[in-house]
Amino acid sequence: MAAMEAAYSIFSSCLPSSPKFPLCPISSPSLRRHVSTSNPALSLKSPPCPLPRLSINPTRKLASFKVFSALEEIAVEEKPEEKIQLANPMRKLYVHNLPWSLTVDDMKNVFGECGTVADVEIIKQKDGKSRGFAFVTMGSGEEAQAVIDKFNSQELSGRVIRVEFAKRFKRPPPPPPAGPPLRETRHKLYVSNLAWKVRSSHLKEFFTADFKPVSTRVVFDSPSGKSAGYGFVSFATKEEAESAISALDGKELLGRPLRLKFSEKNIEVSADGKEEEDISEEPQQS
């Protein structure tokens, strides 16, 4: 109030005691209406009061500035202070090493001592039994912190429980879409007499030393999952496939000499990974 009174006194000192520019006296309206056949018009009986010329006094301008500054300071002083308390956004707790017999209601009763329990989720196995840990969501971050302070490393029904803030893990990005199915070329070699431990990577390394195969594949027996002892290597041209036969037929790979020849029919790998093969050669007999 003292500040308001000071501002009012400053404002009052800036106002003149009597108006320097008196307003026009308000007289009774004396509008005379002239009616004509062309245009109706309104005319004033007496000319309007002339507007006074305003002059700006620097002293008064400064005083006015002080008045508004004082009013602004008063508004700031009288505005209540807003205390913004950033609440802890983490309300979800991870509670583990729980007794197996503990129920949702039991946990609500226990953690309810620290505030409002918004949700309890006990993680269970397929048979419905507890896995010994749960997620508890409190009403606020402060209440969640209170639960940690009070119950972490404390014994509950014979077990020392652990309470901590639940961590948020980012979901891994989805795997890239599978590429088009492998389609072997018609310039394909049938490679037999493979060692049982030979894999497609071995074939690729063996042939890429001198050539550029399009694909390499070892065939496996479906029921047992073991190598069938043969595979296929495809090339972009027939000439390159013939050169591979001439250079590598009879060469050893992991201790066994390879047998190379052209495959009579194509083998394609379908979109679901299953092999569709129709070849005239039979796998080697051991």
Describe this structure in words.
By secondary structure, the protein is an alpha+beta fold. The protein is built from 6 helices and 16 strands. Among the domains are: 92-165, 2-Layer Sandwich (Alpha-Beta Plaits); 187-276, RRM (RNA recognition motif) domain (Alpha-Beta Plaits, 2-Layer Sandwich), CATH 3.30.70.330. Helix 1 (2-14) packs antiparallel against helix 2 (58-78). Strand 4 and strand 5 (130-138) form a beta hairpin. Helix content is 26%, strand content 25%. Mean pLDDT is 71; it is low at 17-47, 61-65, 67-88 and 266-286. The strands form 6 sheets. The protein has a 4-stranded antiparallel beta sheet with strand order 4-5-3-8. It has a 4-stranded antiparallel beta sheet with strand order 10-11-9-14, covered by helices on one side. It has helices at 2-14, 58-78, 104-111, 141-151, 200-208, 238-248; strands spanning 31-34, 41-44, 92-96, 117-124, 130-138, 155-156, 159-160, 162-165, 187-192, 215-220, 227-235, 252-253, 256-257, 259-262, 268-269, 275-276. One of its GO terms (molecular function) is mRNA binding. Pfam families: RRM_1. Residues 91-168, 187-265 form the RRM domain.
Q: By CATH's scheme, which homologous superfamily of the domain at 187-276 applies? A: RRM (RNA recognition motif) domain
Number of strands: 16
In spatial order, strands of the major sheet run 4-5-3-8
- Secondary-structure-derived class: alpha+beta
Q: Sheet with the most strands?
A: 4 strands, antiparallel
Shape: rod-shaped
